[in-house]
Structures are given as structure tokens and as C-alpha cells.
Amino acid sequence: MSDKRQDYISWDEYFMGVAMLSAMRSKDPHTQVGACIVSDDHKILSMGYNGFPMGCSDDDFPWCREGEPYDNKYFYTTHSELNAILNYRGGSLEGATLYVSLFPCNECAKAIIQSGIRRIVYDQDKYEHTPAVMASKRMLRAAGVEFYKYEHTGREITISL
Ligand SMILES: O=c1ccn([C@H]2C[C@H](O)[C@@H](COP(=O)(O)O)O2)c(=O)[nH]1
Ligand SMILES: [Zn+2]
């Protein structure tokens, strides 16, 4: 008889958990997004979260949503998925799976498709009725990138740091 623990976390819980933990690094006061890219043999290849590019200070650039484009966050934020793709130093992401806490926008969808990622597991889809997300799904379907909603298990994880 095996003495193996039975309550260990599943692969999906593990990778979505890493994506959610990455999101906690985001300085965006409204929406924090985390991403984790995984190989088909369950190795974490890269991670990312939404934030400003290197050299663009979190304290100097704007985090607000309103106002002129020059004065709000949207021109300046690098999305979590793109950061995860760009953070990868190992070569090809062909065949990889992306775990992400928010459904990718159209710009991220283009980067996902072009990087060779073949599968997306996402959590929230709060912008599903926006043109950006509808266009994203249109491109992902056309390119044969599969996407699945993460199924919450109800497990709560507490980490004391
Ligand atoms: O594909 C996506 C879409 C959005 N994000 C980031 C970009 C922004 O920092 C927030 C969205 O801000 P709202 O205030 O909810 O409009 O999410 C991303 O990382 N990936
Ligand atoms: Zn995006």
C-alpha cells in the first residue's frame, strides 16, 4: 500500500495558482493579470504580469483609466501574456499552454498565435463582450489555438510569508 499524500494540488491548480500569484506583483490598482506558460511535459517555461516596460517607473507613469490616452495607463501597460512570452529565454514556445487569470485581448492573441502557444486555460472573462476579446476569440479559433475556462475546485491555499 502506498503512503502517498492524497490531497496534493493538480497540475491545473498548480499552474493557475502560479498565474494568480504572478498577478499579485501587478501595480495596476484596477485589474491585476498573471500568466504562466507551461510545456507539454508540465515544466514552467515563463511567467508574467501586467506592468510598465523596463525603465518606465511605476511611480511616474499613470495608473488611471480615464483622461487623455497620453495620461492614462493603456498606452503604457505591457500585458501579462506578452510579458510572459517576452520573458521566455529558452527558444521556441511551440506547443506550449498558457495559464492566464484574464482572457487575453486581441493584441495578446496575436502574440500568442505567433509564438506557437497552442492552448489557453483562462480564469476570468470579464471583458467577454468587448470588441477586443471578441476579436481575440475570432483569431484564436481561426488559428486553431484551443481555449478552456479554468474550473475552480474550491481549494483554498494559504501561504505564510
Ligand atoms: O489581455 C490582457 C488584457 C488586459 N491586461 C491588463 C492591462 C491593464 O493593466 C489591465 C486592464 O485594466 P482595466 O482597468 O480593467 O481596463 O489588464 C492584460 O494584462 N492582458
Ligand atoms: Zn492583452
TrEMBL record:
Q: Which PROSITE patterns match?
A: CYT_DCMP_DEAMINASES_2
Q: Which domain of life is it from?
A: Bacteria
- Give UniProt keywords alphabetically: Hydrolase
InterPro entries per the UniProt record, alphabetical: CMP_dCMP_dom, Cytidine_deaminase-like, dCMP_deaminase, dCMP_deaminase-rel, Deoxycytidylate_deaminase_dom
Query: Which residue range or ranges hold the CMP/dCMP-type deaminase domain?
Result: 10-147
**Which Pfam families does this one have?**
dCMP_cyt_deam_1
Cofactor(s) required, per the database record: Zn(2+)
SUPFAM superfamilies referenced in this protein's UniProt entry, alphabetically: Cytidine deaminase-like (SSF53927)
Its protein name is dCMP deaminase family protein
Q: What is the lineage of its organism?
A: Bacteria, Bacillati, Bacillota, Clostridia, Lachnospirales
